[in-house]
Amino acid sequence: MGMVAVIQMVSQSDVTANLARARALLEQAAAAGARLAVLPENFAAMGRRDLALLGQAEASGEGPLLPWLQAAARELGLWIVAGTLPLPPVGQQGGKPCACSLLIDSDGQIAARYDKLHLFDVEVADSRGSYRESDDFAHGERLVLADTPVGRLGLTVCYDLRFAELYSALREAGAELISAPAAFTAVTGAAHWEVLVRARAIETQCYLLAANQGGQHPGPRETFGHSLIVDPWGQPLACEARGEAVLLADIDRPAQAAIRQRMPVSAHRRLHPGTLQPLHKEHT
């Protein structure tokens, strides 16, 4: 067993101010006894147009974000899922960055890196209207899991929530918890956020740690908030509608094991990733 924290923010374009607010919220989580904390997507900057430059600075060791994260994790004795940062694809220096979710361990070391697989290229009926993440970011290419003090963690980001096959693959790879830092829009969030988070928890019988942005941002952009910690039965353990918040919950692994034993859906699965073949109708 162990305590986890989900952190909700209302990040702006000022990186220094965002980091100060994130540090204060991480300190609250650590003081409450959390072993692992999840920051929201774009926690360090929202509305910036210089993402590639930010990413290149971080990759070359000249940016503020990685040193800040590593110091925060080490000084607070906390594992941190660092929302998303713009970082170049592994092995590359230029081009579009990835929306990268780093897992930092309590020694300040990078324990895992997940590059967001699904990019939000969507028309939304809000004040902004059109979202084209692929204009700014490159797609990720792989699943990522890592062992943490509170269980085996699968990493996802925001729009990934709409792709159940990703979560099923993480469950088959041994996930017990799944992080979902996000910046869901107010419109799509009101329609689908909670039902998606709870559905992914129910399907995988994992804890879902869904850290959303929750307010007004440059752009203009409004995010939905309602960050959640959901248990493997699909029940919300903590939620906050808007604004900054630190949500806390205990991970009960014996209870999770009992749920999986009573309803062994993973053992009953007949369709596995890569095995489903299309049905071709014969014409006579």
From TrEMBL:
The keyword Hydrolase applies. Keywords: Hydrolase. Gene3D superfamilies: Carbon-nitrogen hydrolase. InterPro entries: C-N_Hydrolase, C-N_Hydrolase_sf, Nit1/2_C-N_Hydrolase. Residues 2-253 form the CN hydrolase domain. Pfam families: CN_hydrolase (PF00795). PROSITE patterns: CN_HYDROLASE. It comes from the Bacteria. The keyword Hydrolase applies. This is Nitrilase. It comes from Pseudomonas linyingensis. The lineage of its organism: Bacteria, Pseudomonadati, Pseudomonadota, Gammaproteobacteria, Pseudomonadales.
